[in-house]
Design goal:
The protein is an all-alpha fold. The chain contains 9 helices and no strands. It is globular. Keywords: Membrane, Transmembrane, Transmembrane helix.
Amino acid sequence: MRRESWGFAIGSVLFALGALQVYGDAVGREIDNATYFVGSLFFTAAAYIQLRLSGRPVPGAESLRVERYDWWAALIQFAGTLLFNLSTGVALVHGLTVEQDDAWQWRPDLFGSTAFLVASGLAVVATTETDKLWDPHARNWRSTWLNMIGSVAFGVSAVGSFILPGTDMPADPVAADLGTFVGALCFLVAALLMRPPHRTYSSNQSSTRS
């Protein structure tokens, strides 16, 4: 696995755990929201590593399209994780009434989910530029599309968690929890499948030396 994949994997496990109703009922909303908050920190650390590793391409004709898409995808994804840090942090420290505590927990916010969706779309374009739109044999093709599906699921969760006017209840709590859980599982599998770049040049050097 790549270095940043460990952070995404741990964060995904914590998000999936937080989305389980049985876990929230067992530990209470405060611990449940703390689980989301810690998971968001792992996401941010991993996204920062990914952004640093992507390297900023030099603008101009000599800069490959795939490099620009990769960098923008990493930057927007990092911004999305910061938004999740903010929303999970607010959920953790926000004082809830007894009624709100029974019905409310953190779910992906609209802005963070939108950032994830845009970043995933850019990553899909970059993968298509490198390989093909449908190429299961490509190195990280599966991870790219799993992240896209996960981002869509987080978007569904964000819509389901919209608070209805005049109430303290989300529009669709089931869709909100299920979207978070499915999205987290997609991110987890994508992180586990992510492989480091091939070291063709180093391998050729080793073969020559031997």
